[in-house]
């Protein structure tokens, strides 16, 4: 009896200490934490979740994404602002933190490390500490718009696509306002009396995607191109392509082999080999493709924005992934590859999940 009593006495203190530690972690786990720089809400390290804070409904999307040079992942949404994931925590930036709109269509990292956001309210960028609104200001002249919609200084032009080309110039595709080029100091609207040869008379309006290929050509595409399809700018002239009379083409990706892929409304996918546009896998892919990625093994991944999940193509065969396989939603809007080669899928209902080559892991509530 004495021996047992002594043993209990010696164990009492460490057990109490252990209980205190467990109580501490239990009370703090799941609580909202605060980012020391921005004051924005983040969620815990143990199993991070992307938490909605703005009350959006199930029809809103995680629409775009980016991995920056430091390895952080950025995800833009159609109502919840933008999220940054540093491998441990999600930080949610909204208008309360200086973002100019909670509807984010595009994310870009420039050559100096600033993160740019194309939103319903125009442009802003983040330097790691603060957000700065960048109004699109050009000369008062117009070939597209009536005098009531001419180019007055405005930060309210909705920006849907962005690119910084190899020379350092920025390109911004807008909703119903065409394309703007920015040299870091001034804006100019592309094809607005700028000396570019434009034999087709292209007048772009809603520009959803911009892509620079390996040769330095810049491709523009979107929903409303006056039935002109997609156009390519080589630095001197601009020409348009309209395969199969398709007026809605979005440049998505140039793969390692040099092929350029385009999402299409009628035929879903086109592959351009530098010579011709060819319809691709019409029987295998029957949903609109909003995003593409090429993984470390060279497989191509296609996001199906309506309700088709994601499709993987290894050069010969197709493999399909849906909610039955662990995808959190079958309406997939963006794909981002991280530093480790994992693929992240942004979906409807502000959903997010990661695929490690074997399993899907959910990162949204």
What features would you describe in this structure?
The chain is mainly beta and 365 residues long. It has one helix and 30 strands. The strands form seven sheets. Strands 1-2-6-5-4-3 form a six-stranded antiparallel β-sheet, with no helix packed on it. A four-stranded antiparallel β-sheet has the order 7-8-9-10, with no helix packed on it. Strands 11-12-13-14 form a four-stranded antiparallel β-sheet, with no helix packed on it. Strand 9 and strand 10 form a beta hairpin.
The low-confidence parts are: 1-45, 143-153
Largest sheet: 6 strands, antiparallel
Total strands: the figure is 30
CA-atom Rg in angstroms: 24 Å
Helix fraction, binned, reads under 10%
Secondary-structure-based class equals mainly beta
Shape: globular
Biggest sheet, spatial arrangement of strands: 1-2-6-5-4-3
Q: Helical segment tally?
A: 1
The end-to-end span amounts to: 53 Å
Beta-strand percent range: 35-45%
Descriptive keywords:
365 residues; 4-stranded antiparallel sheet; 1 helix; mainly beta; 6-stranded antiparallel sheet; globular; disordered N terminus
SSE order and pairing:
Blueprint: H1 2-28, E1 33-34, E2 41-43, E3 62-67, E4 73-77, E5 82-85, E6 90-93, E7 104-109, E8 115-119, E9 122-126, E10 131-134, E11 159-164, E12 170-174, E13 179-182, E14 187-189, E15 209-212, E16 218-221, E17 230-233, E18 238-241, E19 249-254, E20 260-264, E21 268-272, E22 277-279, E23 289-294, E24 300-304, E25 309-313, E26 318-321, E27 332-337, E28 343-347, E29 351-355, E30 360-362
Antiparallel strand pairs: 1-2, 2-6, 3-4, 4-5, 5-6, 7-8, 8-9, 9-10, 11-12, 12-13, 13-14, 15-16, 16-17, 17-18, 19-20, 20-21, 21-22, 23-24, 24-25, 25-26, 27-28, 28-29, 29-30
